[in-house]
Amino acid sequence: MGLVSEFKTFISRGNVMDLAGGVIIGGAFATITKSLTDDLIMPVVGYIFGGADFSRYFVRLGDIPAGFKGNPESYADLKGAGVAMFGWGEFLTVFVNFLILAFVIFLLVKAVNRLLPKPEEGIAVTTEDVLLLREIRDSLKK
User: Fold this and answer.
1) What is the C-alpha separation between 1 and 77, in angstroms, rounded?
2) For the chain, which terminus, N or C, has the lower number of CB atoms within 10 Å?
3) Would you say residue 83 has pLDDT above 60?
4) Mean pLDDT in residue range 108-129
């Protein structure tokens, strides 16, 4: 079997296509979650804690390079200039974003599990492989 035909077989499997679709939808969902965090939640949290932008909270570890033209209080400007910084505010934003995304995924999985039929208890599901192996075992016993 040639490399191209093996690749076609691999890529045409249902699981690979489902995974590709999931990755694409996940990327789109991540942008929605980022906007939810950056544009709605973090401003409220920032207002409560005295500032609207958590990226302002950082500790500069390195020296500002000579000829720096940006704002020395701007995380983005300093980061762009390659200054070493401990950006705990930016990390906090990303962490809250992760928590929101994880919670939404949890809610989605919980909703889908409610919609799917539950397997009946006490009935063992056997695959064709298991049935074939049982037949072989029984034939060998005889």
Assistant:
1) 55
2) C
3) yes
4) 75
